[in-house]
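In this section we walk through a basic example: taking a raw amino acid sequence and producing a predicted 3D structure, encoded as discrete structure tokens. The instruction is simple. Fold the sequence below.
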Amino acid sequence: MSELDDLLRVTWGRAADGGAPTEAEAALGDGWAVGPAVNGGAVMAVAAAALGEAFAGAGHPDLLTWSAFFLSPTAPGPVHLQVETLRSGRTVSTGQVLVLQDDGGGRRERARVTATLADLGVMAEPAHRAPAAPTMPPPEACVPARRDGSPLAAAITILDRLDVRVDPATAGFAAGRPTGRGELRAWLRLADGHEPDVAVLPLAVDCLMPVAFDLGVAGWAPTFELTGQVLGRPAPGWLQVRLHADTVAGGVYVEDADVWDSTGRLVARSRQLAGIRVPEGGLPPRAG
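The resulting token sequence is shown next.
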């Protein structure tokens, strides 16, 4: 069993009325954390896994589109999932997952994920039109993102689960030289060799360092809401991820993510609204 399989393992409770269960438990280990909180991509992946199991019997096991609201930081440890079917149709099914956690004073909602699922072999084939993957050096010529790379990275335990190679053209932030363009490009795969699949994609769009780093603003950039789409089942091999931010307003910014598989097919994309702490003097100017 891979580390991702272990993360996505959901234990269902027994339905009181004899129907399908709607309550489940999962464990978000401290190996998927960014500082004191579990990475949002891991939280979304677990919620999507629960919905995939709930709708598998209807022939809709694959995540198609989803929206996640992050209401409070998820601490490493057990979570309770409340799963609700909103609609089960012939081609798609839609449901909602409340991710709850005991904080000592009762269950507190950490995230709420609403998603539509389908059979991607039917809904996402063939691919007709999509942007091409960016031109990047091969993974071995890119900059590995490791926990020993900086004091900030030391607390990002999820880096032990991932193999991330950042395009040198967008890695200047690591040496204190952000470009100011608001773009990061990287190769991505799971460190334990688990080949990419649909279950990886909610993690892939939200597991890299915030693109705010390339805007010259380091530190935690909490996600308020993220909307994503799955556009195909990824082929085995490396994923290419491009993050881009062109809009910053007050204490928030918009981050877009695109994910291509090893064949160059766009397999997922997302847009999120996240927090940012812009220095008093404003954003640093663009390099060059």
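Looking at the output, two observations stand out. Residues 40-55 form the longest helix (16 residues). The chain has a mean pLDDT of 94. In the next section we compare this with other chains.
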